[in-house]
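Bug report (template v2)

What were you trying to do?
Predict the complex of my protein with thiamine diphosphate.

What happened?
Run completed; filing so the output is reviewed.

Input:
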Amino acid sequence: MYEDMVTARYYEERLQEEYMEGKQPAFDISAGPIPGELHLAAGHEASGAGVCAHLRDDDTVTAPHRPHHIAIAKGVDLKRMTAEIFGRETGLSKGKGGHMHLFDPDVNFACSGIIAQGCPPAVGAALAAKKRNTDAVAVAFLGEGAIDQGGFLESLNFASVQNLPVVFVVEDNDWAISMPKERVTDVRDGSKRADGFEMHGERVDHDDAIDVYEAAERAVGRARDGNGPTLLEVQVHRRMGHFMGDAEGYRPEADVERHKARDSIERLAEDLRKYGVTGDEVDEIREGAENRVDHAIDWAKEQPEPDPSAAHEDVFANPPAGAAGETSTTAATDGGEE
Ligand SMILES: Cc1ncc(C[n+]2csc(CCOP(=O)(O)OP(=O)(O)O)c2C)c(N)n1
Ligand SMILES: [Mg+2]
Protein backbone atom coordinates (compact mmCIF):
# COMPACT_ATOMS: atom_id res chain seq x y z
CA MET A 1 0.00 0.00 0.00
CA TYR A 2 2.82 2.37 0.84
CA GLU A 3 4.42 1.73 -2.52
CA ASP A 4 1.15 2.48 -4.35
CA MET A 5 0.60 5.62 -2.30
CA VAL A 6 4.06 7.10 -2.82
CA THR A 7 3.91 6.16 -6.49
CA ALA A 8 0.63 8.05 -6.86
CA ARG A 9 1.81 11.12 -4.94
CA TYR A 10 5.11 11.43 -6.80
CA TYR A 11 3.43 10.67 -10.13
CA GLU A 12 1.10 13.60 -9.64
CA GLU A 13 3.92 15.89 -8.53
CA ARG A 14 5.70 15.09 -11.78
CA LEU A 15 2.50 15.53 -13.83
CA GLN A 16 2.00 18.97 -12.25
CA GLU A 17 5.38 20.14 -13.49
CA GLU A 18 4.79 18.77 -16.96
CA TYR A 19 1.26 20.12 -17.09
CA MET A 20 2.14 23.74 -16.37
CA GLU A 21 4.73 23.84 -19.16
CA GLY A 22 3.56 26.38 -21.75
CA LYS A 23 0.27 27.13 -19.98
CA GLN A 24 1.36 30.42 -18.41
CA PRO A 25 1.15 33.44 -18.04
CA ALA A 26 -2.58 33.47 -18.89
CA PHE A 27 -3.76 29.94 -18.13
CA ASP A 28 -4.12 28.23 -21.53
CA ILE A 29 -5.68 24.84 -20.95
CA SER A 30 -4.90 23.50 -24.42
CA ALA A 31 -1.18 24.35 -24.37
CA GLY A 32 1.74 22.22 -23.26
CA PRO A 33 2.50 18.50 -23.27
CA ILE A 34 -0.66 17.58 -21.30
CA PRO A 35 -3.61 19.31 -22.94
CA GLY A 36 -7.03 19.55 -21.27
CA GLU A 37 -8.04 19.36 -17.62
CA LEU A 38 -6.05 17.59 -14.94
CA HIS A 39 -7.63 16.56 -11.61
CA LEU A 40 -5.11 15.49 -9.03
CA ALA A 41 -5.86 13.17 -6.14
CA ALA A 42 -3.19 14.14 -3.61
CA GLY A 43 -4.76 13.37 -0.23
CA HIS A 44 -6.93 10.53 -1.60
CA GLU A 45 -4.21 7.87 -1.81
CA ALA A 46 -5.23 5.83 1.24
CA SER A 47 -8.61 5.04 -0.26
CA GLY A 48 -7.27 3.72 -3.57
CA ALA A 49 -4.51 1.71 -1.94
CA GLY A 50 -6.55 0.40 1.02
CA VAL A 51 -9.38 -0.85 -1.18
CA CYS A 52 -7.44 -2.14 -4.19
CA ALA A 53 -5.10 -4.12 -1.91
CA HIS A 54 -7.93 -6.67 -1.74
CA LEU A 55 -8.55 -6.88 -5.47
CA ARG A 56 -7.36 -9.23 -8.19
CA ASP A 57 -6.89 -8.50 -11.89
CA ASP A 58 -10.24 -10.13 -12.68
CA ASP A 59 -12.08 -7.79 -10.29
CA THR A 60 -13.51 -4.70 -11.96
CA VAL A 61 -12.87 -1.13 -10.84
CA THR A 62 -14.54 2.00 -12.14
CA ALA A 63 -13.13 5.36 -11.08
CA PRO A 64 -14.21 8.98 -11.48
CA HIS A 65 -12.47 12.06 -12.96
CA ARG A 66 -9.77 11.93 -10.24
CA PRO A 67 -8.46 8.47 -11.07
CA HIS A 68 -4.66 8.22 -10.85
CA HIS A 69 -4.27 6.86 -7.31
CA ILE A 70 -6.94 4.22 -7.98
CA ALA A 71 -5.51 3.22 -11.36
CA ILE A 72 -2.05 2.84 -9.87
CA ALA A 73 -3.33 0.73 -6.97
CA LYS A 74 -5.36 -1.45 -9.36
CA GLY A 75 -2.20 -2.15 -11.37
CA VAL A 76 -2.99 -0.24 -14.56
CA ASP A 77 0.03 -0.20 -16.89
CA LEU A 78 1.83 2.96 -15.75
CA LYS A 79 3.68 3.58 -19.01
CA ARG A 80 0.63 3.27 -21.25
CA MET A 81 -1.45 5.30 -18.78
CA THR A 82 1.16 8.06 -18.90
CA ALA A 83 1.26 7.96 -22.70
CA GLU A 84 -2.52 8.35 -22.64
CA ILE A 85 -2.29 11.39 -20.38
CA PHE A 86 0.28 12.91 -22.74
CA GLY A 87 -2.02 12.18 -25.71
CA ARG A 88 0.35 9.71 -27.39
CA GLU A 89 -0.44 6.95 -29.85
CA THR A 90 0.70 4.15 -27.53
CA GLY A 91 -1.57 5.37 -24.74
CA LEU A 92 -4.25 3.09 -23.31
CA SER A 93 -6.84 4.67 -25.63
CA LYS A 94 -4.38 5.67 -28.37
CA GLY A 95 -4.12 9.11 -26.81
CA LYS A 96 -7.75 10.03 -27.46
CA GLY A 97 -9.10 9.81 -23.92
CA GLY A 98 -6.68 11.76 -21.76
CA HIS A 99 -6.40 11.52 -18.01
CA MET A 100 -10.14 11.10 -17.27
CA HIS A 101 -10.64 8.24 -19.72
CA LEU A 102 -8.21 5.49 -18.83
CA PHE A 103 -9.23 1.97 -19.82
CA ASP A 104 -7.08 -1.07 -19.13
CA PRO A 105 -8.88 -4.33 -19.95
CA ASP A 106 -5.91 -6.38 -18.67
CA VAL A 107 -6.82 -5.38 -15.11
CA ASN A 108 -10.49 -4.48 -15.70
CA PHE A 109 -10.13 -0.79 -14.99
CA ALA A 110 -12.14 2.10 -16.44
CA CYS A 111 -12.81 5.70 -15.48
CA SER A 112 -14.98 8.55 -16.67
CA GLY A 113 -15.30 12.31 -16.36
CA ILE A 114 -19.07 11.97 -15.89
CA ILE A 115 -19.64 11.81 -12.16
CA ALA A 116 -21.33 8.65 -10.78
CA GLN A 117 -21.08 7.21 -14.30
CA GLY A 118 -18.97 4.30 -13.06
CA CYS A 119 -21.73 2.93 -10.81
CA PRO A 120 -24.00 1.22 -13.38
CA PRO A 121 -21.09 -0.46 -15.22
CA ALA A 122 -19.69 -1.74 -11.92
CA VAL A 123 -23.10 -3.18 -11.08
CA GLY A 124 -23.15 -4.76 -14.55
CA ALA A 125 -19.72 -6.31 -13.98
CA ALA A 126 -20.91 -7.67 -10.63
CA LEU A 127 -24.03 -9.13 -12.25
CA ALA A 128 -21.85 -10.76 -14.92
CA ALA A 129 -19.55 -12.26 -12.27
CA LYS A 130 -22.54 -13.67 -10.42
CA LYS A 131 -24.10 -15.16 -13.56
CA ARG A 132 -20.78 -16.74 -14.50
CA ASN A 133 -20.48 -18.23 -11.02
CA THR A 134 -17.08 -16.65 -10.39
CA ASP A 135 -16.10 -14.98 -7.13
CA ALA A 136 -14.94 -11.80 -8.88
CA VAL A 137 -16.17 -8.52 -7.42
CA ALA A 138 -16.62 -4.99 -8.72
CA VAL A 139 -15.82 -1.68 -7.04
CA ALA A 140 -17.14 1.72 -8.08
CA PHE A 141 -15.29 4.76 -6.70
CA LEU A 142 -17.04 8.13 -6.69
CA GLY A 143 -16.85 11.47 -4.89
CA GLU A 144 -19.24 12.64 -2.17
CA GLY A 145 -20.47 15.28 -4.62
CA ALA A 146 -21.88 12.50 -6.80
CA ILE A 147 -24.02 10.68 -4.25
CA ASP A 148 -27.25 12.45 -5.11
CA GLN A 149 -26.97 11.36 -8.75
CA GLY A 150 -29.79 9.10 -9.89
CA GLY A 151 -27.34 6.63 -11.43
CA PHE A 152 -25.73 6.08 -8.04
CA LEU A 153 -29.01 5.57 -6.16
CA GLU A 154 -30.42 3.29 -8.87
CA SER A 155 -27.21 1.28 -8.73
CA LEU A 156 -27.50 0.87 -4.97
CA ASN A 157 -31.05 -0.35 -5.36
CA PHE A 158 -30.31 -2.85 -8.13
CA ALA A 159 -27.16 -4.14 -6.40
CA SER A 160 -29.10 -4.68 -3.20
CA VAL A 161 -32.16 -6.34 -4.67
CA GLN A 162 -29.97 -8.67 -6.76
CA ASN A 163 -27.49 -9.23 -3.90
CA LEU A 164 -24.56 -8.41 -6.18
CA PRO A 165 -20.83 -8.59 -5.37
CA VAL A 166 -20.15 -4.87 -5.62
CA VAL A 167 -18.65 -2.24 -3.32
CA PHE A 168 -19.37 1.46 -3.72
CA VAL A 169 -16.54 3.56 -2.35
CA VAL A 170 -17.35 7.21 -1.73
CA GLU A 171 -14.30 9.41 -1.38
CA ASP A 172 -15.50 12.27 0.80
CA ASN A 173 -13.12 15.21 0.42
CA ASP A 174 -15.73 17.77 1.62
CA TRP A 175 -15.82 19.56 -1.75
CA ALA A 176 -17.45 19.20 -5.15
CA ILE A 177 -15.51 21.73 -7.22
CA SER A 178 -16.36 24.94 -5.27
CA MET A 179 -19.39 23.50 -3.43
CA PRO A 180 -18.83 22.55 0.21
CA LYS A 181 -20.55 19.35 1.27
CA GLU A 182 -22.64 20.94 4.04
CA ARG A 183 -24.39 23.19 1.50
CA VAL A 184 -25.82 20.27 -0.47
CA THR A 185 -26.65 17.67 2.15
CA ASP A 186 -27.60 17.42 5.82
CA VAL A 187 -26.37 13.83 5.88
CA ARG A 188 -22.82 14.02 7.16
CA ASP A 189 -22.30 10.27 7.02
CA GLY A 190 -22.93 9.34 3.38
CA SER A 191 -22.78 5.62 4.14
CA LYS A 192 -26.22 6.04 5.82
CA ARG A 193 -27.74 6.15 2.35
CA ALA A 194 -27.20 2.37 2.38
CA ASP A 195 -29.92 2.07 5.06
CA GLY A 196 -32.59 3.03 2.54
CA PHE A 197 -31.67 -0.01 0.49
CA GLU A 198 -31.21 -2.51 3.33
CA MET A 199 -27.55 -2.56 2.37
CA HIS A 200 -24.51 -2.65 4.59
CA GLY A 201 -22.94 0.79 5.01
CA GLU A 202 -19.76 1.87 6.77
CA ARG A 203 -17.82 5.09 7.08
CA VAL A 204 -14.11 5.44 7.80
CA ASP A 205 -13.86 8.85 9.41
CA HIS A 206 -10.20 9.42 8.60
CA ASP A 207 -7.83 8.28 5.89
CA ASP A 208 -5.46 6.06 7.82
CA ALA A 209 -4.52 3.48 5.21
CA ILE A 210 -4.69 0.56 7.64
CA ASP A 211 -8.21 1.46 8.78
CA VAL A 212 -9.32 1.79 5.18
CA TYR A 213 -7.68 -1.55 4.45
CA GLU A 214 -9.59 -3.23 7.27
CA ALA A 215 -12.95 -1.72 6.31
CA ALA A 216 -12.36 -2.68 2.67
CA GLU A 217 -11.41 -6.19 3.73
CA ARG A 218 -14.86 -6.56 5.28
CA ALA A 219 -16.63 -5.01 2.28
CA VAL A 220 -14.75 -6.91 -0.45
CA GLY A 221 -14.93 -10.11 1.61
CA ARG A 222 -18.70 -9.73 1.93
CA ALA A 223 -18.99 -9.32 -1.85
CA ARG A 224 -16.67 -12.23 -2.63
CA ASP A 225 -18.45 -14.54 -0.23
CA GLY A 226 -21.80 -13.89 -1.91
CA ASN A 227 -23.12 -11.75 0.93
CA GLY A 228 -23.97 -8.75 -1.21
CA PRO A 229 -22.99 -5.13 -1.70
CA THR A 230 -21.53 -2.53 0.65
CA LEU A 231 -21.47 1.24 0.61
CA LEU A 232 -18.18 2.37 2.07
CA GLU A 233 -17.43 6.05 2.62
CA VAL A 234 -13.90 7.19 3.35
CA GLN A 235 -12.95 10.67 4.57
CA VAL A 236 -10.11 11.81 2.37
CA HIS A 237 -8.43 15.17 1.84
CA ARG A 238 -8.30 17.45 -1.15
CA ARG A 239 -4.80 18.85 -0.88
CA MET A 240 -5.05 20.62 -4.25
CA GLY A 241 -7.53 22.71 -6.22
CA HIS A 242 -10.37 20.91 -7.98
CA PHE A 243 -8.27 20.90 -11.14
CA MET A 244 -4.84 22.21 -12.03
CA GLY A 245 -5.16 25.96 -12.52
CA ASP A 246 -8.00 26.29 -9.98
CA ALA A 247 -7.19 29.47 -7.99
CA GLU A 248 -9.53 28.24 -5.19
CA GLY A 249 -10.80 31.75 -4.45
CA TYR A 250 -13.88 30.15 -2.90
CA ARG A 251 -11.93 28.14 -0.32
CA PRO A 252 -10.91 29.53 3.07
CA GLU A 253 -7.17 29.27 3.69
CA ALA A 254 -7.86 27.48 6.99
CA ASP A 255 -9.64 24.71 5.09
CA VAL A 256 -6.69 24.25 2.74
CA GLU A 257 -4.37 24.05 5.75
CA ARG A 258 -6.68 21.62 7.57
CA HIS A 259 -6.70 19.26 4.60
CA LYS A 260 -2.93 19.45 4.18
CA ALA A 261 -2.32 18.82 7.87
CA ARG A 262 -3.34 15.16 7.60
CA ASP A 263 -1.04 13.20 5.35
CA SER A 264 -1.96 9.55 5.15
CA ILE A 265 1.36 8.73 3.48
CA GLU A 266 3.45 10.10 6.32
CA ARG A 267 1.17 8.35 8.81
CA LEU A 268 1.54 4.99 7.07
CA ALA A 269 5.32 5.43 6.99
CA GLU A 270 5.20 5.96 10.77
CA ASP A 271 3.01 2.88 11.20
CA LEU A 272 5.43 0.83 9.12
CA ARG A 273 8.29 1.88 11.36
CA LYS A 274 6.22 0.90 14.40
CA TYR A 275 5.64 -2.51 12.83
CA GLY A 276 9.41 -2.91 12.45
CA VAL A 277 10.06 -1.79 8.88
CA THR A 278 13.30 0.20 8.97
CA GLY A 279 13.61 3.79 7.76
CA ASP A 280 15.99 2.57 5.06
CA GLU A 281 13.43 0.09 3.78
CA VAL A 282 10.77 2.80 3.64
CA ASP A 283 13.17 5.08 1.72
CA GLU A 284 13.99 2.24 -0.63
CA ILE A 285 10.32 1.70 -1.46
CA ARG A 286 9.88 5.42 -2.12
CA GLU A 287 12.99 5.68 -4.29
CA GLY A 288 11.95 2.61 -6.31
CA ALA A 289 8.53 4.18 -6.88
CA GLU A 290 10.08 7.47 -7.98
CA ASN A 291 12.36 5.73 -10.46
CA ARG A 292 9.44 3.84 -11.93
CA VAL A 293 7.47 7.07 -12.35
CA ASP A 294 10.40 8.96 -13.91
CA HIS A 295 10.93 6.10 -16.32
CA ALA A 296 7.23 5.99 -17.31
CA ILE A 297 7.16 9.75 -17.94
CA ASP A 298 10.41 9.71 -19.95
CA TRP A 299 9.07 6.81 -22.01
CA ALA A 300 5.70 8.46 -22.62
CA LYS A 301 7.27 11.69 -23.82
CA GLU A 302 9.25 9.80 -26.45
CA GLN A 303 6.11 8.18 -27.88
CA PRO A 304 4.67 9.38 -31.20
CA GLU A 305 1.64 11.64 -31.38
CA PRO A 306 -1.38 10.05 -33.09
CA ASP A 307 -1.92 10.75 -36.75
CA PRO A 308 -4.86 13.19 -37.08
CA SER A 309 -6.31 10.90 -39.76
CA ALA A 310 -6.92 8.32 -36.99
CA ALA A 311 -9.38 10.62 -35.18
CA HIS A 312 -12.44 8.75 -36.43
CA GLU A 313 -11.08 5.27 -35.84
CA ASP A 314 -12.41 3.23 -32.88
CA VAL A 315 -15.45 5.45 -32.53
CA PHE A 316 -17.85 2.54 -33.03
CA ALA A 317 -17.29 -1.14 -32.33
CA ASN A 318 -18.60 -4.03 -34.36
CA PRO A 319 -20.29 -6.60 -32.14
CA PRO A 320 -18.44 -9.90 -31.84
CA ALA A 321 -19.51 -12.57 -34.35
CA GLY A 322 -22.64 -14.35 -33.19
CA ALA A 323 -23.68 -11.60 -30.79
CA ALA A 324 -27.30 -10.49 -30.82
CA GLY A 325 -26.37 -7.00 -31.98
CA GLU A 326 -24.95 -8.20 -35.32
CA THR A 327 -27.61 -6.36 -37.22
CA SER A 328 -26.83 -3.06 -35.48
CA THR A 329 -26.90 0.05 -37.64
CA THR A 330 -23.15 0.42 -37.66
CA ALA A 331 -22.44 -3.07 -38.87
CA ALA A 332 -25.32 -3.20 -41.34
CA THR A 333 -25.04 0.16 -43.04
CA ASP A 334 -21.44 1.14 -42.69
CA GLY A 335 -19.55 -1.93 -43.63
CA GLY A 336 -16.52 0.14 -42.66
CA GLU A 337 -13.74 -0.64 -40.27
CA GLU A 338 -15.36 0.91 -37.21
C1 LIG B 1 -23.04 14.22 -14.49
C2 LIG B 1 -22.03 15.32 -14.26
N1 LIG B 1 -22.45 16.50 -13.74
C3 LIG B 1 -21.56 17.49 -13.52
C4 LIG B 1 -20.25 17.32 -13.84
C5 LIG B 1 -19.23 18.42 -13.59
N2 LIG B 1 -18.38 18.04 -12.46
C6 LIG B 1 -17.14 17.55 -12.63
S1 LIG B 1 -16.40 17.15 -11.18
C7 LIG B 1 -17.74 17.67 -10.31
C8 LIG B 1 -17.76 17.61 -8.80
C9 LIG B 1 -17.33 16.30 -8.31
O1 LIG B 1 -17.26 16.33 -6.92
P1 LIG B 1 -17.02 14.99 -6.15
O2 LIG B 1 -17.92 13.95 -6.70
O3 LIG B 1 -17.10 15.28 -4.71
O4 LIG B 1 -15.55 14.58 -6.57
P2 LIG B 1 -14.18 15.35 -6.25
O5 LIG B 1 -13.94 16.25 -7.42
O6 LIG B 1 -14.35 16.10 -4.99
O7 LIG B 1 -13.16 14.28 -6.16
C10 LIG B 1 -18.76 18.11 -11.14
C11 LIG B 1 -20.05 18.64 -10.69
C12 LIG B 1 -19.85 16.07 -14.39
N3 LIG B 1 -18.58 15.83 -14.71
N4 LIG B 1 -20.75 15.08 -14.57
MG1 LIG C 1 -15.64 15.72 -3.38
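What did the reviewer find?
The chain has one domain: 2-306. Strands lie at 60-63, 103-104, 109-111, 138-143, 166-172, 175-176, 179-180, 200-204, 230-235.
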